[in-house]
Each structure stands twice: as C-alpha cells, then as structure tokens.
Amino acid sequence: MPRDSTSYVLYYSPGAASMAVHWMLIELGVSFESQLIDIDAGRQHDPAYLRLNPAGRVPTLMVDGTPRHESVALLILLAERHPEAALAPEPGSVDRAAWLEMMVYLANTILPAMRDWFYAGSDGDPAGAEAVRALACRRLDAAWDKLDAHLGESHDYLIGDKLSTADFMAVMLMRWTRNMPRPALGWPNLARYIRQLRARPSFTELNAREGLTEWRNEEA
Ligand SMILES: N[C@@H](CCC(=O)N[C@@H](CS)C(=O)NCC(=O)O)C(=O)O
C-alpha cells in the first residue's frame, strides 16, 4: 500500500538542489506541501529555517514530521518509501550495484564540483576563487565525458534502460551547466538524454511549479 504522502513538506528554492527531489515527488504522484525558501533573497539563513536545516541549505524534506537533508539521500529514501514506483533497482537485482555507484558518483564527485563552481568566492577565499572554478570545470568536463560514454548512442536512461532516481539528479546537475563554459548539451549523447528526459510531463510541471522558463525543450 502506498504510504500517506501528505506527510511530506519540501523546502525548495527554484532551480536549486531541491529540484531533483521536487521532480521525483511530482513523478511519484504523491501529494506533498511545498515551501519556498528563496536562496537569492537569503531566506535559507532565517532562524526558523535554520532550525530545520542548520547548514542553511536546500533541500529539506519533512518526512513524517522530521526534517531530512541531502538531495541524493532524499531521492534514495523516497524510492525506498515508494517501491511501487520502481525508481530504484531492487536490492539483489542486476542493476542495483550500478545504481548505487551512480548515485554516489553524482553526490560525491559532480555535486561538490558544482558547489565549487557556484560558491568558490563565498565558501572559500575570494582571492583563490578563479583557480577553484577552473578546477571545478576540469572535474565537470571529465564527469560529462564519463556520463556521455556511459550512455553511448543507445541508452535513454542512466541505469537499466529505465527511469530511476539517478536521472532526476543527473538532469538537474546538467541543467546547472547551462551558463558554464561547456554546457552539458554540448555532449551528443547527453544532449539526446537531456531532451528525452525534459520531454516528460513531470518536468514541464516541475518548471511550472518552480516558475522556471529557461532550459526547456521548447526553447532548444
Ligand atoms: N549536498 C547538499 C547541497 C545543498 C546545496 O548546496 N544547496 C544550495 C543550493 S543548490 C544552497 O542551499 N545554497 C544556499 C547557500 O549555500 O547559502 C544536497 O545535495 O542537498
């Protein structure tokens, strides 16, 4: 039986790391509340929000009244709580190891490089920000090379030729490259993959709910 999904409240900022979780909640078709935390306006530092997320970051997902954090962990948790949606390979299945490997790669290789690219000047010494950003770019280019080769010309999804949590995370991260020196759309297999994932009605709904107009198939 599906769980009582009204126990979810997503704290999000448009286009931020909350986007993958928001997308998955929509794709799952569960009901949930959403609360805007505008990070451009600094709302992540409001005392009320810091009580839910002391790091002052989005996303936070309230699950049965408890604040939970970390986008990749939240995707895994949602897959576990909604097995009927089959958005993660079952434990012991052929694709499980590849899925775990991909989720960890997205979380501990691509996401930190993205953080360095966007926050080098505020997380670290602004005087060294340019070098940090250059390294982040090199790391991200290598990651896109890897994922482009992984998809090849014939795979539409990252794992097991079916939609999984890895795709919500990967497409969100690829979206963040749109104004970078080498946007992910410049890799041929990534471009095909992105266009195919962006065509999902849930992605259109996600953009509408977050008020986002950039980086949609209609404008490509
Ligand atoms: N590892 C965290 C990263 C969260 C994160 O860095 N979120 C950014 C937005 S993409 C944020 O909240 N930035 C606001 C700030 O750092 O002040 C996750 O995956 O949830």
UniProtKB/TrEMBL annotation:
Domain GST C-terminal: 92-220
A Pfam family of this chain: GST_N_2
The UniProt record lists the keyword Chloroplast: no
Highest taxon listed in the record's lineage: Bacteria
Keyword entries, A-Z: Transferase
InterPro entries named in the record: Glutathione-S-Trfase_C-like, Glutathione-S-Trfase_C_sf, Glutathione_S-Trfase, Glutathione_S-Trfase_N, Thioredoxin-like_sf
GO molecular function, one term: transferase activity
GST N-terminal domain: residues covered: 5-86
Keyword Lipid metabolism attributed: no
SUPFAM superfamilies: GST C-terminal domain-like, Thioredoxin-like
Protein name per Swiss-Prot or TrEMBL: Glutathione S-transferase domain
Source lineage: Bacteria, Pseudomonadati, Pseudomonadota, Betaproteobacteria, Burkholderiales
